[in-house]
Amino acid sequence: ACARRVRGHLPPKARGRQSLETVCMCSAAAAVLSVATTSAPRLSRRVAVIGGGSAGVVTARFLKRAGHDATIFEAGSTVGGVWADNPTNDVVYRGLHTNLPTVVMQSPDLDFASSVPSYITKEMLGQYIEAYGREFGLLQLATFGATVTRVAPAASEGAPRWTVEWTVDDVAHSDVFDAVVVATGHYNKPYMPSLPGEENWLAGDAARRITHSLHYDDPDDFRGQSVLVVGGRSSGVDIARMLYGVAEWVYVLEKKCTSATTHAAEAVTHVPLGTRLCRNGRLAAPRAGGG
Prior knowledge:
This protein has helices at about 10-15, 25-35, 55-65, 100-105, 120-135, 200-205, 235-245; strands at about 5, 25, 45-50, 70-75, 140-145, 145-155, 160-170, 170-175, 180, 225-230, 250-255, 260-265, 270, 275, 285. It is of the alpha/beta class. A four-stranded parallel β-sheet has the order 5-4-3-9, covered by helices on one side. A four-stranded mixed β-sheet has the order 10-11-13-12, with helices on one face. It has a three-stranded antiparallel β-sheet with strand order 6-7-8, with no helix packed on it. β7 (about 160-170) and β8 form a beta hairpin.
């Protein structure tokens, strides 16, 4: 049998990248070249994308680019999720600015407008996500005003499929999809931790209240009051900063704090986990042993 150098049959550009000469039998070379130039046909799947926020639109874009038939189900009137102008889940409080700069958040192939600052408002981010949807032809893939009510396995032979049920203006609809992407986020329901002594503290004054950041919007609602912010991550720090100079005093309960630390010039005190609310309105240090 004869042998030949496969490199000699490569185009010039590929030849320049070839670091080793490959010597093979003619029949083997033909088989290798046949495998390299033959690929399985690409399958197009019907995919339901539940949620038209940032994750949903990016997912739909790349599903579309791969040749799949994607449908976005968005409860609001446009894409953007919690950042949209009129979101169905209004968790973004007034005055919020992103804690990441635009150069980190933007798509590699779609820049923010040069006129916007590095740290932007909710409205600016919502406008960007909508512009992203327009740029990559995603708005026509969306069913707006759609509330998905049920996703369940569909009776079918072969590969698993999924029945998706939704309503638009109280009219029920359903369809079957090959796959479902859940991109609804995780900010639908507030988590309210139980604080030591909260029942006695609430009973001590009818004006006292416990509210979640989901319902926070304006620091003026707390003007002249002493406020305990539970949580020292992004939202907690952001709200405590907004309350500075408005509330009489701000207490921040956070995991990393090991003992009460007061910053008198800022009228802020950091307190550790286990700090108790007292009926007289004061805070008490955690009990020894956590009891």
